[in-house]
Amino acid sequence: MRNPTGPAVSAPTWTGTSRSPLPTTHVWWMIPVSMILGAASAPLGFYGLDDHGQSTYWLFTAMIFATVTVVWQDRQPPHQVIAAVAIAAATGFGAAALAVGQEARDVVPIAAANVVGALISAYLYQRVPPRHDRADHTDVYDTSARTTPGTTARPWVPCTLADVSWLMVCTAVGVGVATAAGAYPGTPLGGSGDLRVDLWNGFWMFSLSAVGCHCVLPLIHHRDVPDLPRPHPLWIPVFVLVAVFCVEAPDVAPTYPLDWLFVVPAVLAGAVLTVRWAAVGGLAVAVIWAVTPYAEYPDVGADLWVMPQAVVDLLIAFTTSVTLMLLILREQSAATTAHTDARAAGEAAREAMLTAVLESMTDAVVLIDREGVVQVSNAAVHRLIGVPLSDHLDVGWCRAVQLRPVADQGRWDEARLMDLIDPAPGQRPTVDVIAGLTGKRLVVTARRVDSTEGAPTLLLLRDVTDDHGRQRELEWFAASVAVDLKSPLDRLDAWIDQMDGRLVEATTATASATADLSADLPHGVEFVQEMKDAIQQYLVRAVGSTDPVPAHNVAVADVVRDVVDGMAATGGIVPAVDLQADHILRVADHLAHQLIAYAIGEVVAGHDTPQDVAVRVRSDDGEPGWSVVTVASDSAPPDRVLHAASVTSGLGLSLCEAIVSRYGGSFDTHTTAGSTSIRFTLPAAPQEVP
Questions:
Q1: SS3 227
Q2: H-helix or E-strand containing 552?
Q3: Which of 101, 126, 390, 688 has the most CB atoms in a 10 Å sphere around its CB?
Q4: Which helix or strand (DSSP H or E) is residue 668 part of?
Q5: 549-602 pLDDT per residue, tens
Q6: Residue 445, burial from CB neighbour count under 10 angstroms (0-12, 13-18, 19+)
């Protein structure tokens, strides 16, 4: 037993029994439980009294504190339940104390002082939190639930270093008040008259309460932070051996100052165990320390107020707090690591997604610094310029890979390249270039990325080869129209001037001049018809040109739907289409739309109302590599006749034949009474090999 003279005495110690979260409402059932525990505390405490009236097993204050924490689960606790639990514990304690022979005049003040001290500790811990806990907490785990007034109480098992320190302070204040009020048998109200003994008794009572807070509360309460992983099974026997050695070493070698060894199992528990395993270990060490005698300390004399035994007792209290602090640091480190890993995984997933998006782009993207050093690029660069991208962009590399600007006779100079590499803020210079190795025409646009450190430049390379080809075709078409129509238009202009002069003369001329004018009018009409035929021939020749036009995979059904939608948008007659076309053609998209539009327009010509219009579009397999498309109507007017396509049979059919001829296909029309059809063949898209 821990006293200067008495032998070691073995006695039970209350450790709590629940490892699961207890109810958080008004737990009235704790009243009889607290009464039983109070009754058990009395004989245990008075049993350990020595000749000087000191008790080694005075657990009553710690027991009241523990039972109060069970019912105090809210920020606004049920005060009537707390009072009932405390009174029940005091009642059980008093009854048991009287039963073991204590005087009532001694028991009542002791019980009241212990209750007051325990409640002071509990109220201080919950109602006066540390300053930093009142502000916005930024720990690695969420503490908003325990710091928001009116919601959940602070956890009784500390979750931060500040909580551990504050719990120790609250315990010390409560025990100090209780000791001064006569809560400890060896220290009655007003003290025993020996300050050294009073301090020793107060320190021992504080140690017992601290052990209860650090080692008992974790066994009956859950914590609001993620727990550490369970320790390896081998650490349990290692901890037991270390703890036994460190506790017994001062007794085996009393002439050596070995009491500091109590810190070793505390540090080991905090370093390798979880909170509950560490609580069990710390409780076991405290019990072993309580039931073994003190080492032989030298007489300190009357001038020293604090006895060596009291210092060693305080060491037990603070080693349990050290264990809890180490565990909290490990938890915070694990939470920080998990948070960092989660952030890293999220960033990796985001980077993988951005990389996939970047690599799937058809446009080339290059990120360079102000010196022209490439930082990021995608695979489209190689496809567009024909060679892998260099690590450094300069004039020499552009010339080596035959990347020539369209302007300035295709020659690079340092100034033009620097405009792209280091553009002025707010400017987006653009350069048209020709990739000599692939023959593609590219548009390079530069943009300063000012939102990042160093402000790199983002280069975007777009392939405009097809667009440029279409533009060139339109320019050629316009030039050809201007050349071919110049002569007819000049003749028409001359004829109009001539007719204008004739009309002026006719106003004052004789009847013979008017007759001459009337005779010239049929010639003018004939001339206009000749000019119309010339324009029509030109259009047919332009559409049927053999100049190369980029081909695409075009679905017949999609083209028909687009054409019908276009007819509806323009307010024309929209036919009812029976669509049976599943084939894919290999032609220019715009020519396919013109062909289908002209064909449908020819077979529905002559109808006045939509109710009479019905068109059938069908596609079939032709010869290998060809598809046959039929556009027909069974509701044509009786006088509607489609002649074989020629220049004089109508512009629509002529254009249809010209488009089909451009691809080497065949074109035919068929007319019967009330039925017309157009049939043509075009190249089919190649079949994909599975």
A1: coil
A2: strand 552-555
A3: 126
A4: strand 667-672
A5: 667 788 999 999 888 887 777 666 678 888 898 899 988 887 888 888 888 888
A6: middle
